[in-house]
Input
Amino acid sequence: MNRRTRDRNQALLQAETGTVYKSHAGRLRVALGYPNTYFIGMSNVGFQAVYRFWNEEPDVVCERFFLPDRNDRNRGDTGEPLVTLESGTPVGDFDVVAFSVTFEPDELNVISMLDGAGIPPLASERNERHPLVLAGGPVTFLNPEPLAPFLDVVAVGEAEALLPLLTDSLRRAASRGELLDRLEQSEGFYVPSRLEIDQRPDGTIASKRMRSTGSSVVRAKMGRRADLPPPATYVLTSATEMSKKFLVEVSRGCPTLCRFCWAGYNYLPKRSFEVEKILASARAARAHTSEIGLVSTAVGAHREIVPLVQALKAMGFRVSVSSLRFEDLRPELVDPLVESGEKTLAVAPEAGTDRLRFAIHKRITNQEVLEKIDMVFERGVENLKLYLMVGLPGEREEDVEGIVGLVEQIRDIMLDHGRRRGRVGRVIPSINPFIPKPGTPFQWCPMASQKELHRKMRYLQKEMGRMPNVEIRCKSPRQERLQALLSLGDRRLAPAMVMMARGEADLSQALTRHGLNLDDYVHRARSLDEILPWDHIDNGMKIELLESQYEKALAADALVTR
Output
């Protein structure tokens, strides 16, 4: 390891609390990778939970590695291989290389990191002398297919349900072939090399089947238990975007079931982690930090969220929440958050009109939104983040204009309360292009064209840019094309992904070079009877429910009245 890398890693380790150091001798060695930088990866509670699980096993040693910072790429600059943080051991020397993948664009970083470790990225080019390469995380049980050619095994489901069986199989198997056989027969594991896909000349799928079993389904293994310790920040550090904030997952799933949202449909039934277990984790962290963040798709839907926040406030924590549903905004929840020192909340109107909001199954009116927000500012909140989308199925011009009107009304409420207090805050609308997600009722929908999205974004930036105390943030439709492609893509993308990961071509060039068309993946509607690249992954959601919700969305005008 070069001196620059060694010094940087040592500085990171010195800033950590909770790092695990174990001897490699006689142990199963796992290199756990987060396919982004340390700064981002160490704020991911799922990644940290896997790190903790493996290191609690006496015969396993698990060390972390990350995508090097852009100015510190230790392989491209020096020819040295990517190494783990704890011991500086080359990643390619481990028995297992495991990735935790949360966001689709990070799939390209998986390829870069395998390259950086000196491991052939394509599974077909690896043999027994290479580490077993596997991945888990939300991406892998939505649509693992773009990443499938690079993985020996895909963990499909929730880590707490998968890791015990995976670890036992790794211990017992005498060879890679025996391990793959064992896992292929186990719920929650997918061996991509053993899936046969028959594709038509136009790229659509005619049939799929597992070579050995003949089955066309891989069943996700879900924990569905709330009595386990919740995933949390087990290694605290200031060198991350959350900077010493202790994060803990309080619940999983969401009862709203918005038709665009993968988490609501793929984490059913919704469950809340036990308050006592959350508080036990918080007590252990309190000696090291006074900041705690409660994370979930729907934090406020935790069945005991009010006593939980009150208890954390009593411990001396400043309590923040990832976001709150409008249904959960009530004085008994907002008051302890504000009293703990939190002055900023995040909510998600998603759309600017009642009609479109009801069509996506978010059944709250603009009037109700404004009433809730008036209450929030009255209780002492100063800043409000708003999550909104453009390009939703069925969107009309008046829906986009409605975003401007809604934000303006919210700003006026904020100004009214702020002037009375003598402190005026900000309204921060975050505008995101709609991206169809597998496993949701909108998986058959196209993404809006780049031209249309750019036009709408420019309009919103112009109109809201004129509003004092409004700080609009727009995600680039051009950059979001990659997320959409990897959300909806198949394994034919592999060679193009390699080119992009290695910086040999941009998205358009890479697709063209390999005879692929972005429109075929991203900008076309799919029929309900089409075989989808990801539909061999069974998350337990009945396809009839998704189809029914999709058809109801198409009849959005009928859903305005409740």
Observations:
- Residues 3-219 form one domain.
- Residues 397-421 form the longest helix (25 residues).
- The longest strand covers residues 383-390.
